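## retry 2 of 3
previous attempt timed out at serialization; input unchanged, resubmitting
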Amino acid sequence: MSFVNRLFSYVFNELMVNALANSRTFQRFAVKSDALMKEAAATDAAEMARRAQQAAQDLSKSVFEQSKGGKGPMGS
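## retry succeeded, writing output
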């Protein structure tokens, strides 16, 4: 039973891989999906860098204010 199951799975996978590999529609879908994922990752990375830079600026500003004797964000 296990052998038949593995054989069926192998044949099915081979047929599906060959069908998708030779499909122009699937190839276009794969290329567009890849481009969208890369763009989303780059956008997320840029947004994270912008937020980190803003947080660093806010922190340095509050440290500078505290050292001048002003109240910082912690209320000290």
